[in-house]
Amino acid sequence: MKFGTAQGYYDNLNPAELPLYSGEMYLEKHRGTYTSQSNNKNFNREFEEKMLSLEMLLASRGLQGDKEEMDKLWKEALLYQFHDILPGSSIARVYEETDIAYAKMFAKLNQLAQAQGVSFVPGKESKLLNLRGETVNKLVKDGDRYFLYQGSDAAIAPICYENGTVAEVCETVTTDYYTVTLAEDGSFQSICLKNGQVIAENANRLQVFMDVMDAWDFEDDYRDQPEVFMQLDSTKVRQFGDLTQIVQRYSFQNSRLVQTILLHKELPYIQIDHDVQWQDTGYMLRAEFTPKVWDSVVHSDIQFGYLDRPTTDNDAHEKAQFEICCQKWFDLSDEKQGFAILNNAKHGFMCKNGIISLNLLRSTNYPCVDGDQRPSHYSYALYPHNGGFDPVKVDSLANQYCERSLYGTEPAEMPAFDNAQVQI
Q1: pLDDT tens for residues 98-111?
Q2: I want to staple 191 with a disulfide (CB 3.0 to 4.6 A). Which of 107, 200, 345, 375 is the partner?
Q3: pLDDT digits (tens, 9 = 90+) for 312-321
Q4: What's the rounded Cα separation, in Å, for the pair 388 and 392?
Q5: Angle at 48 between CA 45 and CA 51, to 5 degrees
Q6: How far, in Å, CA of 246 to CA of 71, rounded?
Q7: Which residues have a Cβ under 8 Å from the Cβ of 183 and sit 6 or more positions away?
Q8: Is the model's pTM score more than 0.70?
Q9: Pairwise CA distance, residues 364 & 218, whole Å
Q10: Sign of the CA dihedral running 27, 32, 34, 40
Q11: DSSP-assigned letters across all residues of 190-222
C-alpha cells in the first residue's frame, strides 16, 4: 500500500486501460422518491412557482420588496427540500409539521403579493399579469367556474366560463388541435391529431399495481403482475360553450378518485385534474398510455434544459432505467409528430416497450405509516402535437401550465428577448 493524493492517483492512471461510459450517471436506486408523498411535492412546486411569479413582478418594477422576509421564506423552503423530506422518505410527523408550515408560508406569500396590489387568486375584474412576455394560452379554475387567458398583452383579461349545462355523455370531443374518443372505462380510446393521425391509444388508463416496498424503492418486475384498473363508477359532462368538462368517479377497494378532464376548443393540451382519497396500503397508481409515435429516446425536462433518455433495453444501463424522472414535462417524438405530458409535481415515469406510464401515487407504509393516504390533489396535461420535438414550444407550454400567475389591474413591464430559447 502506498499513501498519496487523489491527484497523484489519477495522474498515474492509463486512460487506454479504463472502460468508457457515455451517458447519464443514472442512480439505480430510490426511483420511488420521484413520487412518494404527493402533497409535499405539490406544496414545494406551488411555493417555487408563486415565489418565482412574485420575484418576476418585483424585478419588472425595479423593486426588491421585503427582501428579508423573502430570503427567510426561501431558506425555509430549502430546509423542506432537504433529505428526506422532499423525496418523500421521512416519518409521518415530518409531513404533519410541513403541511402546517407550508400553509403559513403561502399565507405570507399572499400578504407579500397584496402589498404590491396583486393577488394569486383570479377574478372577473382582474387581469393575468404576463410577466414572461410570452403569448399566453392558459385555462384556470376558480371554484365552479373557469377563466381562459389568451394573448400577448402585458395584462390579459379573462374569458369567463360558468353555469355550464349538463350534456349527454359524449363519445368524442373535437378541438382545433385534436379529437379524443372515450372508452367505456373512462380512458381515451384514441387521441387523434387534426390531420387524422392517431397519436395515442388506450390513453390515461388508471392502473393499480401492488407495491409492498418502502418510500425509496419499488421492484423492477412490478409490471409482471396481472392487470388491475380502477373502476369507473360514473361520468358527468358539462358544456361551457367551447369548454367541455368531463367528471369521472373511480373506485378501487376502499379508495376513491375523482378525475376532471378539461378540453377547450382553443387549447393545445388536454388538462386532467385528480382529487384522490386513497385508503389502501401497499399499492402504486399509474396512468398508462400506448403512444403511436416512438423513438429511441424520450426528452426529459431538467432544471436548465433537458436530457435524452433511452427507450430501449440494449444493455444493463438502459434496462436499469425502468423509471426515470423529469421536472415539468417529457416528450416522445419522431420527425412528424409527438406526444408530451406536462405535469404539476408528478416526476416519475416509464417510457419502455411501447408504453408510457406516469406514476401518480404510492401508498407505502415505511418510514411514513399510511403514506399518501390523505386527501390529495394534483394535475397533469396531455399535449399531442404535429411536427417533431420542439423544446422551446413544449417548455413554454409547461411553464405556463405550472405557473401560479399573479392577477391585478396594472400591466406588468414585460421582458423582451431576441432569442426564443431565453426563458425566465
Answers
A1: 999 999 999 999 99
A2: 200
A3: 999 999 999 9
A4: 12
A5: 145
A6: 42
A7: 189, 202
A8: yes
A9: 10
A10: negative
A11: EEEETTS-EEEEEEEEEEEEE--S-SS---TTG
